[in-house]
Each structure stands twice: as structure tokens, then as C-alpha cells.
Amino acid sequence: MPQTREHLNICNLLEIPDGIVVLSRIDLVEDPEMIELCQSEVEELVQGTFLEDKPIIPVSSISGEGMPKLKSALQKLQSQLTSHETDSFFRMFVDRSFSVKGFGTVITGTVLSGKIQTDEELNRFPGKERIRIRGIQVHREARNDVHAGNRAALNLAGISHMSIQRGDQLASPDSLITNFMLNVELTLLKDAPYEIRQRSRVRFHLGSHEVMGRVILLEEDRLIPGASGLAQLRLEEKVSSKYGDRFILRSYSPLTTLGGGRIIDPSPGKSRRIRRKLAERLKLLASDDLEGRVEEVIY
Questions:
Q1: Least confident window among 107-111, 189-193, 278-282
Q2: Which residues partner with 223 through β-bridges?
Q3: Is the peptide bond before 254 cis (omega within 30 degrees of 0)?
Q4: Torsions phi, psi of 190, nearest 5?
Q5: From CA 76, how far away is CA 72, in angstroms rounded?
Q6: Which helix (H) or strand (E) is 165 found in, with range?
Q7: Is residue 120 within a helix (H) or strand (E), and if so which, with residue range?
Q8: Contact 172, 114 (CB under 8 A)
Q9: Per-residue pLDDT tens for 204-236?
Q10: Distance separating alpha carbons of residues 73 and 20, to the nearest angstrom
Q11: How far, in Å, CA of 157 to CA of 17, rounded?
């Protein structure tokens, strides 16, 4: 279905490294050959993506068919994953914010990196508010700490639930850069409905944050489906990010995923350099040459 294809495209753009395909509700299928046909269609769909040659497991939550195989595959997948970035700074996007009687403000989200303990302090981004962690829950169980990969609920002290909303981030102080503009590597999907031209208005998605903005292409005057290029995003609200963050672009209207990419300069200005010179600088920042990138940022 179109939504499935869009979700697969988004996972590719975010560079999700691994996964499993699950065919659910097979108890509703009367003819077993239909399941085989669906598996063949899925194999064709995922060719050239991170899910190519990955397990395709038919399951039913009603009868339990396939569930043991799925659990085993998930355990195997977990054992193959690299360790989370627990040594990095703490970072978590907020996807819900609400108030609980007797506790106050509670937010939920998935921890992207780092770890935090109760009574430690974080900053809300974008912004400068210092917030203390009053309590932590993971899957409804109270914990003293939380780390990268955990789905968590944090009870916050010092802020109203109205002052922290979906799209905000909790992170270690001074760990993110906040700006209205971003220099990026941008790739359009091969099946994007149309090309991007200068100053196209788009929806920018970073984590759970959605912001309207315009695309300034730095190498050509248009970017066709399937092509990649350097661009500057000029947003209508401040965004907090860091080098290497992955993002998604969707059309202003109707809502359709156009493409996505990687942030290579989270704090640019409206450069007065000619576009060619700026593009050369960004190619260096996007390279694997760490020493060259540091020199370019400093000078």
C-alpha cells in the first residue's frame, strides 16, 4: 500500500541499518497461496533497500502462528546490533507532554544517545531552560537511570507541560546548535512526485519536530527525482541539531515524502560567497576528512 512504500522510503532516508519484515493478520487469509504471493511482492518491493534479503515472517496475534519465530528473529537481530551511544551526550526528542496529578510535568520519547539519572539536569532545546529529572519510567517500571535505545517517560521539575511540547528536545547543556538555517546534503526519492526548485516551500522533519521552510539549492537551479545535491534550508522556526543528523523533507501540500538527507552545517549564515564557493566548502564538511573539516570550521 502507498503508506507502506512511504514508510520504507523514510527508513532508507534515515539510514536505518537493519530490520525484519512481518506479514501480520495471516489468520484472515483463507488461501495459503495468498501468503506466498504477498511474500513474493514484499521481496520485490524491498530490493535495493536495507531490508533486501532480510527475514519475512508471517504471523498472527490471534492464533499465535509465527510468533515464536518472530521472537527468535528479534533476539538474533538485537545480538547483532552495535552498542548504543551511551558514552555520548544525552539526547531525547519529546513526542508527548502532559501533566499527572501529584507528579507534575511528564514527557515521553525515545533516548537517542547518552544516559541520565534521576536528579540530573538537562536543557530544553530550542531554548535555555535548565530542567531537573525528578523521576524515570521505562515501560511503566520506575528506574534510577535511562540510556540510549530506551523508550522512556521522564517526570520533570521546573517546567510546565505547556512549555515543553512535541518536537522539543532534552539534551545535555551546550550539546546542540540552534538556528533558523541549515546547510545539508539532500537526496530526492526516485518516485518523488515532482522536482524541487529554488525556494520551494517544504516541511522539514527532524526527530518529532516539524517546521516549514524553503530550499535554497547551491549547485543547480532544480533537483530532479533520484538526484542528490547541496542545499541550504531556511526555516520558519528555530531548530536544534548537530552535524550528521538525518532529516526528512515532505511537500507543503499535499503531504508527500519528497526526500531527505544529512545536516552538514548546523549553524550557517546567509553566506555572501558565490554559490560555487559555498558548495565547495560544504563538500569538504561532508567528507570523511576530519582534519580538513576542523580546519574549515575554524578558519
A1: 278-282
A2: 196
A3: yes
A4: -65, -35
A5: 6
A6: none
A7: none
A8: yes
A9: 999 999 999 999 998 888 999 999 999 999 999
A10: 8
A11: 36
| Cα torsion 137, 138, 144, 147: sign | negative
Alpha carbon 141 to chain centroid distance? 26
Q: In whole angstroms, how far apart are CA 59 and each of 32, 33, 63, 241?
A: 13, 15, 9, 39
C-alpha span between 197 and 279 (Å, rounded): 17
What is the spatial distance between Cα 21 and Cα 57, in angstroms, rounded to a whole number? 6
**Separation CA 196–CA 141 (nearest Å):** 47
User: Which letter does DSSP use for residue 288 in this model?
Assistant: S
Give the CA angle between residues 99, 104, 105 to the nearest 5°.
Answer: 60
pLDDT, average across residues 127-144 = 92
- C-alpha grid cell for residue 127? 531554548
Residues contacting 270, CB < 8 A, separation 6+: 181
